[in-house]
Structure formats: C-alpha cells, structure tokens
Amino acid sequence: MKCLELLLPLVLLIRGNKIIHFFLLCRFISIWDISAMTNSCVVIPCTFMYPSAVRPYRGTHGIWYFGQPYPQLFPPVVYKSRTDIVHESYKGRTRLLGDLSQKNCTLQINNVGVEHSGRYYFRADLGGANIYTYPDFTELKVLDQPNIDVPAEIVSDERLDLTCYAPDNCPDMSPEIHWMYTDYLPEPLFTSDYVEESNTAVLASTLTFTPRPIHNGQLLGCRVHFPNTSFVYERLISLDIKYAPRTVWVNVSQEVMEGSSVTLHCDVDSNPAPRISWHFGDEELMSETASNASLFLESLTPEQEGVYTCVGDNGYGAMNTSMYLAVRYPPREPLVNESLTVQEGSTIALHCSTQGNPAPTLTWLKDGELVGTITAEEVNVLELLEITPQVDGTYRCLAENEHGRASSSLNITVEYTDISLIQESSFYFSEKYMMAVIVGTIGGVAVIAFIVAAVRYVGQNNKKENGNPGQDVGSRVENPSMFYSAVKKDKQSLRKKVLKTELLGSKFNSILEESTGDDSDYQSVGSMASLERQELNYAALEFVRGRPREGGFGRGDDGSDYTEIKAK
Predict the structure, then answer these.
(1) How many Cβ atoms are within 10 Å of 128's Cβ, its own excluded?
(2) Which of 27, 75, 234, 331 makes an SS bond possible with 68, Cβ 3.0 to 4.6 Å?
(3) Are 137 and 191 members of one domain?
(4) What CATH code is carried by the domain that includes residue 289?
(5) Pair 207, 117: CB distance under 8 Å
(6) What's the distance, CA 146 to chain centroid?
C-alpha cells in the first residue's frame, strides 16, 4: 500500500481579522466499494495516517461525512466522536468500531436503507490547526435485491455460468443463497463460495447448465435469506438465449387465378429476430428485420408462377423454407400450321401448341368431326399418313381446360386423280379383259372345228376325183365359181395395251388383248378352167402362236396341220 504524505495549504478563509489554516493530508489508500442489503448492517473498514511530526492535542477525534468531505459545504454528518450531533437520517444507526488513537476509523451503520447509498469521507481532528480531510472515500451500495452476474451473451448449446451475489458485511448476520425455478433445467450444478469483491466480503452461488432454445425467455431466481431474521431478498431474470433460426413457417403451396392477388406470410423462430427476405428464383423481392414478414403480390401473371423462398438469417445461423405458387389461367389461342396443299399419298404433321394451367386438352376436328384428342404439354403433333382425297378439308385445334377454351384452324388441300374415274376405268378394263378371255376361248374352239370340217371336206373331194379319172374336172362341177387352192392363216398378232393406274397406294393392272388380221386371209386361184393344167401340190392351214411377251400371258406350243390335194 502506497502512502503519500503531503501537507498542502487548502483554503485561506478570512473571518474578520482571523486567518484560519486548513491543511489536506493526501494519503491514497484506495477507493472502496462496499454493498449491503436493505435493513441489514454494513461495516466500512477505515485506517488513516498523519505526519509523524504532528502531535495530537487533547486527543484524536474523527468525523464521517456523507457526500462531501468539506465542512464549509455543509455535508450531512454521519458520525462525530466529540458529540452525538449527526444528521437525522443517521441517528441511532452509526457507531465507531475502530480506535482513533490507533489510527483505525472503521464505521458500522445499522438498518441501512437505499437512501444511505453514496460516498463516505473521514476527517481527522488532531487539535489546534491540525485538522486533516482525506480525499479517499468509500462507495456504499445498499441493495434491495441480490445481484446476478449474467454474461453479455448466452448462446444455445454452450455452457452457461450464472452467479448470484449476496453481501456479507454485517458481523451480526450471514446470508444464505438459494436458486429458484431450476426444475426445467437440464442437469443443473450448484456451487457456493466466499469471495472478496472490491474489498468487500460477498457470498457467491453459481448455477451451471447448458441452455437450449426452449429455455429462451424462461425465468430464473436467486433468493437471499438471513437466518434468524425475516429479511428475504429475491431477484428474477429472464434468460435471453441466442440461437439460430429453428423453424421457418410459410403458407402452404396454393393455387390462384390469373389477375388475382395473394399474400405470402413468413414466420421465423430465432433469437435475435432475423433478417427475413423473400426470394423468387435468384431475385430478392423484399427484406426486413423482424420475427415475421409478409409479401403481397397483386395482378398475378403466369410468369409469377413458381417457387417462393423465405430466408431467415440472424447472424447465428440461417434457414429457409419454400412454397409453390400456381397461377391458373385458361388456354391461350393455339398456334397451328399455316394452311397448306399436299400431294396425295404423302405424309404431313399438324402442329398445335398452346399454354394454359392446368394443361389444356387438345382436340383436332375436321369439318366439325373428331379426329384426335391429346393432353397438351408444350407442342403436340397430329401425323397424317398416306394422304387420301378424304383428308382434304378444314382442321381445327381446340384447347380446353376448366377455366376456358380457345381454338385455331387451318385448311388442307389434297392434289389427287378423280377417284370415281379411276374406279370406273378399273372396272371397265377388268370386265373387258375377262370378256376377251372368254371370247378368245370360244373363238379358238370354233376355228379348230372349222379346220377339221374343211380337212374332211377336201379329203372327200379327193376321193371322188380319184374314183373317176377320165372325167374332166370342169365337167364335174356344175357351178365352177371359185376354187381355193390353199387357205393359210397367217400368224395372228396380238397387240397388248397396258393401263397402269395408282390410286391411294394401290396399283391396278389391266391388260387388254385385241386380235388383228389381214383382209386377205384367203387367196383366189381362179376358175376350174384355169386350173386344168396347173398342179396343186399342197394346201396348208398353219396356226403359229407367238412367244409370250414379258408381263403378258403365255401361249401354248407352236403347231401345224397339213392336208395334201393332188390334181392331175
């Protein structure tokens, strides 16, 4: 302990012709802080010193002042050793425990109240001009409840020590400390100890536990009791537990109509209150520091459909929750192909695309009749294969959902051959071919029969002529008009005509055969008179069948029949 002994002239007061000298003895011991509970007592420890050359005159006396050390400022007198004259608030409450002759100025104040809190100064009176005022003071704090030492920050899931202090500066009373409302704490630990705090005796009780977010806002209490008295002091605190967002609550996903309005709510459980922000995709729509925040959306469009995310961040952690906002609307006007002209037998794809929520049902109609039904997604295609003339017409794509409908149309023109003409021609050529086969068969049989009859006839005439050799030929014929020496049938030519028609992917072949012959199938040989000196050696009828042409009908083997007529 350091001691500075200086005699300094303090004030020169002139009262009439008298000059009074005051000296200040500056000796720094310490500035005491001491506390006491109301209605209890408190002991203020005190020692003082003065220059060794000074000799007290008529003993040593002391005075305690409250608030100020200088008498000329008229501070309240707490205690005065020469007399009992003190301030009324201290009457009967103070007594000197120390021995001034031993430089001990310890003071006890009983039944202290809150009004007694403040600074206390000691003044030594050694007689004569040796009056010394010490600038050192003791700061007294009178408490009506115990102190609880709470950390500036209490973080969830981190060990916490809370200490309750009760001053123990009264020789006649010793405090006891108990904690209140600790039943809900997880495994609390209690320890007690006496400590010296700012040169004053203090009883300390420490509560140790690990807080959780659920403990935020819970009450804890410290109770101080002086045995054998009715004095009880309590203090309650509310735990301020810092924790990251635990839950983020938002609206459930919902559906709204296009053009309407909606409010999205977000509540975040955290301590301290977080910065709440609403996000749509990568865009931040709003933010504010609060435990809850609302986002108002009006005149909704389909582009505003999607995932909305609420983010809560309070520096101890962050959490987010999302919801889906669906915007319902009727189908938009479908986009379809331009009207087009196509070739018969080709393939085309009709495109129809539209938007709507829920996804529209697409219906293709041709001239008012149903062609196909599809559920729209992005683009839907109706494929028409092997185009026929019946495809020609007006096609309409109709989009429907529960909120409305829309449609678009296009025309398809098919370039094709007249179907009725093709069908009639096909039937005509098919019928003609069948008739040609039938007629050809019958004609062939008739020709063969004719040839056989002609051969027999010629043979019979030869026999007759051979039976009467002397008879003149011309005389045996009554009507010698014409006699044919030879009849020869040339090879018949077959002319083939092929008509090939393609209709709707099918091919029809019709083969028509027509027989043509020369007008001079027979040759005139003159009258019998002119044949008298001519010799007829052979007469032949020959039918030769041509080889079958490629793609035509085959014929049988070639054949010849002969007959011989001899005339002499």
Answers:
(1) 12
(2) 75
(3) no
(4) 2.60.40.10
(5) no
(6) 55
C-alpha closest to that of 175 among 158, 153, 192, 163: 192
Quick one: 149 and 138 in the same domain? no
By residue count, the chain amounts to 568
pTM of the model: 0.56
Which residues, in sequence order, are CB contacts of 123 under 8 Å at separation 6+?
Answer: 62, 63, 64, 65, 69, 71, 131, 132, 133, 134
Contact 278, 286 (CB under 8 A): yes
Shared-domain flag, residues 453 and 405: no
pLDDT in tens, 63-74: 999 998 888 889
pLDDT bucket at 172, cuts 50 / 70 / 90: confident
**Peptide linkage before 272 cis (omega within 30 of 0):** yes
**Domain presence at residue 430:** no
Apex 411 CA angle, 410 and 416, nearest 5: 150
Residue 272 half-sphere exposure toward CB, CA atoms < 13 A: 6
**Cα gap 90→67, rounded to integer Å:** 14
Residue 11 sits in the same domain as residue 91: yes
Q: Which residues of 190-203 are buried (b: 16+ CB within 10 A; e: fewer)?
A: eeeeeeeeeebbbb
> Residue 63 contacts by C-beta under 8 Å, 6 or more apart in sequence?
77, 79, 80, 81, 122, 123, 125
Per-residue pLDDT at 333? 94
Residue 22's pLDDT band, with cuts at 50, 70 and 90, is very low
CA distance 179 to 363: 79
Distances (CA, A) of 304 to 5, 262, 299, 350, 404: 85, 11, 10, 31, 20
Are the C-beta atoms of 116 and 138 separated by less than 8 Å? no
The one-letter code for the residue type at 142 is: V
Query: Residue 162 pairs with which residues in a beta bridge?
Result: 207
Contact 327, 304 (CB under 8 A): yes
Q: How far is CA 338 from the centre of its chain?
A: 37
Bond prior to 358 in cis (omega within 30° of 0): yes
Same domain, 186 and 270: no
Of the candidates 256, 266, 359, 376, which has an alpha carbon nearest to the alpha carbon of residue 304?
Answer: 256
How many domains is the chain partitioned into structurally? 5
**Final residue of a structural domain among 142, 160, 180:** 142
Q: Are residues 72 and 116 in the same domain?
A: yes
Question: Which range has the worst mean pLDDT, 196-200, 512-516, 522-526?
Answer: 512-516
- Give the CA distances from residue 284 to residues 72, 275, 277, in Å, rounded to whole numbers and listed in that order: 70, 13, 7
**Rounded to whole angstroms, what are the CA distances from 93 to 107, 116, 540?**
10, 11, 180
The answer to whether the CB of 196 falls within 8 A of the CB of 35 is no
In the predicted model, is pLDDT for residue 485 greater than 60? no
293 is in which domain, residue-wise?
A: 243-328
Q: What is the pLDDT of residues 351-364, one digit of tens each?
A: 898 999 998 988 88
